[in-house]
Structures are given as structure tokens and as C-alpha cells.
Design brief:
The complex is a heterodimer of chains A (204) and B (284). Chain A is mostly beta strands and 204 residues long. Chain A is 15% helix and 37% strand. Chain A is elongated, with a radius of gyration of 33 Å.
């Protein structure tokens, strides 16, 4: 009985030792690598994009579409903020500048204005009778973010150049305040309906 | 009941519009045409929309350049020798992404043998086409104003071919302290046939060469070509520095870029400036 017990213990020790030998194999390691490529991303980011126009031509609430720009590259990036609206002959630039202000033109969706009417509304001295179905509103100069985002008005192309120098998320916004229309761009010639423009933030 | 459904539909469409997103990776395509003997070369990039949206994209090419301030300039295609217009095929040209799922866009540059030596380029723009109009009923005869929001992302595509060169020079560096900020301006020129992407560091030291601040220079792409240059500015916050009024300090830029052999090149420039005010003297 004693011999049997001793044999069992001996076999167990050998067995465990053998088992441990298997467990004590050289440590293997594997490097796990995940490659993150460069990313450019832009998305619309809330803000009010719809309002009404009262009987005097004023916007009743501001329009303030927002954008979120994402970059994981520590390189300065060129973006542009442009706007278009629809004339009877196709898309035209909705941004314009006159007398030191930047304006955005909203055109009637149901009865688009002629491109001449848009040009007249965007001029320094619009004539009310010459710009039916297009109304211009002043735009608040977009806010620069120190060390992240800088806007500059491109007077030859009538759009904003945007210089992004920030790695990460950057939020920006275009604001059309609830103010009266540019003089002589709103009057009884403007038919009821929906007036609109398209604002495009482009990552170039 | 129908009005409630209509209201829900309008809210749903408004939410769809307000989340339009485009994400591209990689953000730049750079191809060395010398790596193939074929007359074409292919690559791909990924596009995705927002996680909670279904978004339709269209893709179209545009010829472009960056000006001396790094601003994007769209150019009319006149068959310029450094343009890839007419030499690119991509698929799909329009597609729908659902719930952030990525879509691979494959592109092939053809006619490599007809490309000029040096760099050729174009920009592939991806734009959301889903700007559905929402016509709201007007009360009291009012008319409605609306801004539709669109997003667009460009993927610059560059092809280098033949004996292209990447050569840059840091020709000037100026610094001026103004109200606790250091305004740095520099000019960097390029006379290679391919663009240069540079990175670097700026160092502010005193006259005993003690380091006061080290900061990262915001990198940029410098176009290739005769007479190409960039004039950049960078504003450095000095609130974490201690400077004495009327004392001279030094600013040094050390920029690096990879040349056509993928070897690192170093550009250095140094200048001095005078602090116009005591900054953080109470921290001494």
C-alpha cells in the first residue's frame, strides 16, 4: 500500500513536471499594428437653416449653419466657403460684396430670378424693379479661431478662403443675422414662396 | 393625422440635412509613376458618411493650384502640361453610403507615358448631392428663407514621373513681438519639379542661447515649379515665456522635407526680435 502510494506520488510529480515543461515553452510575442491613415472630414453641424421673411423683408430669425472640420494631419489645409443660388439660367454665386459688406442672395425656388436680376441685387446700387425674386442679406464676417482657423474674403472670386491650421476637430459657423434686406432688393416684385441659397464648405 | 405625419417627415428630412458628413481617407493620393512599366497605375481611397445617415455622393475632377498663401485656386482645364484632367478614370462616380459604412473609390491614371517629367495633379471632389428641398407652409403671407448646407471634400491626386526633383529654400524669416504674441513670417521657395511637404520646429532663445520656447511650425505643401513660393505667418503665444522689455531674443526655424530620393533635407534660418514689453516678469 505504501509502495502504491509512493508510486502514485512519484508519477504525479513526473506528470506535473512534464506538464510544466510544456507550459514553460519560450515566450512568443506578436506585434499588433493598426495603421491609421490621414483623414479629411467635414460635416454640417447644426445651426438654424430655415426662417421666415416678414412683410418688411427682414429675416425673423438668424440663419447660422455650422460645420465641423476634422483633420488628423498637422499640416495647414486650404478650405473654401462658397454659396450658390439658382437663377433661371442655372446656378450662380450667391456671395457678393458691396460697400464693405458681404451679402448672400436668396432666390425664389418656385420662380427663379434671371441671372441679371441676381447681378443687379448684388451690385452697389440695386434697383428694386430690376431684381424680382432675389433678396440679399448681409453676412456677419466669420469668426477666426486663433491658431486654428482663419478666414479671408476672396474679392476676385467672391467667396471665403479658409486656412485650417488645427489638428483635431474645429467648429465654425456662417451667420446671417436677423436683419433687414439689403436696400432695394426686397419689394412687392418678390413673389411669395421659399427663397434659398446653398452654402458649401469645401475641404480642398 | 396626415398633418402630424407631414410634420414628422419634415423634421426627419431636416435632421437628414443637418448631419451631412463626408470623411475621406487617405486625404491625399501621391503616386510615383516610376514604380511601374505599364502605361497606367491604380490606387484607391475610402469615403464614408455620417454614422446615422444615408448620404449620396458624386465625384468629379477639377484642375487646381495652390497660390503663394496656400489658398486653393480652381483652374479651367486648358490641357495644361501638369494637369491630369482627361487621364483619370474612377469608379464609382456616384454612390450611396449608409450609416457610416465606407465605400472604396478606385482610380486609375492612364497615359503615364504622355505625362510630363515632374509633377502632374488634379483634385477629385466628393460632394453630397442629397440637398432635398423642404417647402414649409407660410403663415400670414410671409415668405420663407432657407439655407441648404452642403459639404465637399477634395482629394488631391499627384503623380510624379521621370527625373522629378524636390528642392526648397527657406529664404527669409522675420519676427515681431506684439502684445504678448510673436508674429513669425517666413518665405520658402521651391525650384524643383515636384511639390515639397515640410515640417519643422521653431526655437526662441535668449542671447546666451538658453531655450525659452520650442514650438511646432505649421507645416504646409510648397508647390513645385520655377518661381514657386509660399509666404506664411504664424502667431506664437508667449504667455508661458518670461521676456524682458527692450531685450533682444533669437528665433530659429529648422524645417525638414523629403527630397526626390526620400532623403531628409534640413532648412535653417535665424532672426532676432526685441520684446516690446515685460512678459510674465512676476513669475520670476
Amino acid at each position: 500500500m505504501k509502495k502504491l502510494l509512493m508510486s502514485t506520488i512519484a508519477l504525479s510529480v513526473i506528470g506535473f513536471t512534464g506538464f510544466n515543461d510544456v507550459k514553460a515553452a519560450p515566450i512568443a510575442s506578436q506585434t499588433v499594428t493598426a495603421v491609421l491613415g490621414t483623414i479629411s472630414s467635414v460635416e454640417s453641424y447644426g445651426g438654424n437653416v430655415s426662417t421666415t421673411i416678414d412683410d418688411t423683408g427682414s429675416l425673423t430669425t438668424p440663419l447660422d449653419p455650422g460645420f465641423k472640420i476634422i483633420s488628423n494631419v498637422g499640416t495647414s489645409q486650404a478650405l473654401t466657403l462658397t454659396a450658390t443660388t439658382t437663377s433661371s439660367s442655372g446656378e450662380v454665386n450667391a456671395f457678393s460684396s458691396s460697400n464693405g459688406n458681404v451679402y448672400i442672395a436668396l432666390a425664389n425656388v418656385n420662380t427663379p430670378p434671371t441671372s441679371d436680376a441676381v447681378t443687379n441685387a448684388q451690385s452697389d446700387s440695386p434697383v428694386a424693379a430690376s431684381n424680382p425674386n432675389v433678396i440679399c442679406y448681409a453676412v456677419t464676417p466669420p469668426t477666426n479661431i486663433e491658431g486654428q482657423l482663419e478666414y479671408s474674403w476672396n474679392s476676385s472670386g467672391n467667396y471665403y478662403d479658409v486656412n485650417l491650421t488645427h489638428q483635431g476637430d474645429t467648429i465654425t459657423q456662417l451667420v446671417v443675422p436677423a436683419t433687414s434686406a439689403k436696400p432695394n432688393t426686397f419689394n412687392g416684385n418678390d413673389e411669395s414662396g421659399s427663397y434659398q441659397a446653398i452654402v458649401i464648405l469645401s475641404y480642398n | 393625422m396626415r398633418k402630424i405625419f407631414l410634420l414628422i417627415f419634415i423634421i426627419f428630412i431636416s435632421i437628414m440635412e443637418s448631419n451631412a458628413a463626408i470623411k475621406i481617407s487617405p486625404s491625399t493620393i501621391e503616386i510615383n509613376a516610376n514604380t511601374t512599366k505599364k502605361d497606367y497605375i491604380s490606387t484607391a481611397f475610402n469615403v464614408s458618411g455620417g454614422i446615422n445617415e444615408t448620404i449620396r455622393f458624386k465625384i468629379y475632377p477639377v484642375f487646381f493650384k495652390y497660390d503663394e498663401k496656400g489658398r486653393f485656386i480652381e483652374l479651367r482645364d486648358n490641357g495644361q502640361s501638369d494637369s491630369l484632367m482627361g487621364k483619370i478614370k474612377f469608379y464609382p462616380t456616384e454612390f450611396t453610403c449608409q450609416k457610416g459604412q465606407p465605400q472604396k473609390v478606385r482610380l486609375t491614371i492612364t497615359g503615364l507615358k504622355t505625362l510630363q517629367n515632374g509633377e502632374s495633379r488634379l483634385m477629385l471632389f466628393l460632394e453630397d448631392v442629397n440637398t432635398k428641398e423642404v417647402l414649409l407652409s407660410k403663415l400670414n403671407g410671409n415668405i420663407g428663407g432657407k439655407i441648404l448646407v452642403k459639404t465637399r471634400v477634395g482629394v488631391p491626386v499627384y503623380v510624379d514621373k521621370g527625373n522629378f526633383t524636390k528642392k526648397a529654400q527657406l529664404v527669409s524669416l522675420n519676427a515681431r513681438e506684439d502684445n504678448g504674441f510673436l508674429n513669425c513670417s517666413y518665405k520658402i521657395t521651391s525650384n524643383g519639379t515636384s511639390k515639397v511637404r515640410y515640417n519643422g520646429w521653431g526655437y526662441i532663445t535668449d542671447n546666451d542661447n538658453n531655450l525659452i520656447k520650442k514650438f511646432k511650425v505649421i507645416s504646409s505643401n510648397l508647390p513645385g515649379g520655377q518661381g514657386a513660393y509660399l509666404e506664411k505667418e504664424q502667431k506664437i503665444d508667449l504667455k508661458d515665456c518670461i521676456l524682458n522689455k527692450n531685450q533682444n531674443y533669437n528665433l530659429k526655424f529648422v524645417l525638414t522635407y523629403k527630397d526626390e530620393q526620400d532623403k531628409e533635407k534640413v532648412l535653417k534660418k535665424e532672426t532676432s526680435f526685441t520684446s516690446n514689453m515685460n512678459i510674465n516678469q512676476n513669475k520670476i
